[in-house]
Design brief:
Keywords: Cytoplasm, Methyltransferase, rRNA processing, S-adenosyl-L-methionine, Transferase. The protein has 7 helices and 13 strands. The protein is of the alpha/beta class.
Length: 248
């Protein structure tokens, strides 16, 4: 059954209204019509099975048949702080991390970040595009929310943001004592921060600052992973150990 996100203000009693780009997609691409059934999500983990009752040029009216809680959201909340990579790598990171169950992704400027965003207008355009990628991935993977893409942070802003959080993980290529699996065995909480460096990894001074606020520096194994691989690899392991990956 086809699935779409709707804003909460477009849900009125037993009616749900689809607006925007999805109207054209439903009518011109999917060629759905009156009496066809769809699943609509309010972005807050509520699903509505609904029947199309009316189609207009700029909106589609649906009649709610059943309301249920989304069963696709994991029991653990994961926020990914991603060192900003070059070119289209961020697109891939967002797509795959959303599919795996990330809650929020925050781009971070570090010492070794190659990409520089020079003005606020350019930053907002990038974030808007990344948010669209998140929405598309959330729709495809039947998520109950659309994970937020946060504003770009400096490394120092990130440190300030996570210093009081309970559990932050930092995969680091020079760590050879503590593995990710080892540290996860000691944690049974419901929120995890993941901090990933850009191409070239973290500067040693940055790793020391992360250690100082209590972040756990961990190894992902004997092979060095690219920045675009490290994030969703870490999320997959966390979802297996603490979440619902592999659960039927």
């Amino acid at each position: 059954m086809h699935r779409f996100f709707v804003d909460k203000e477009n849900i009125k009693e037993n009616k749900v209204f689809i607006v925007g780009e999805d109207v054209k997609h439903i009518t011109k691409v999917l060629r759905l019509g009156v009496d066809d059934t769809v699943v609509l999500c309010d972005k807050e983990k509520n699903d509505f099975t609904a029947k199309i009752s009316r189609i207009e040029k700029d909106y589609i009216e649906c009649e709610v048949l059943k309301k249920t809680k989304s069963n696709s959201e994991p029991p653990v909340e994961i926020v990914l702080y991603q060192g900003l990579p070059k070119s289209a790598k961020m697109d891939l990171i967002i797509q795959k991390c959303v599919e795996l169950g990330v809650t929020k992704i925050v781009p971070v400027l570090t010492t070794r970040t190659v990409v520089k965003i020079k003005n606020t207008n350019k930053e907002q355009k990038k974030i808007s595009r990344w948010q669209k990628i998140s929405e598309q991935a959330a729709k495809q993977s039947r998520r109950g929310i659309i994970p937020e893409i946060g504003n770009v942070m400096t490394f120092e802003e990130m440190i300030s943001n996570i210093k009081n959080d309970e559990f932050s993980l930092v995969p680091y290529e020079d760590e050879n004592r503590i593995g990710l699996k080892d540290i996860l065995k000691k944690y049974n909480g419901k929120r995890v921060n993941i901090v990933i460096g850009p191409e070239g990894g973290f500067d040693e001074s940055e790793v020391n600052k992360l250690k100082k606020i209590g972040a756990h520096i961990v190894s992902l194994g004997p092979r060095i992973l690219r920045t675009e691989t490290a994030g969703f690899t870490t999320i997959a392991v966390i979802m297996y150990e603490l979440g619902d990956l592999g659960v039927i």
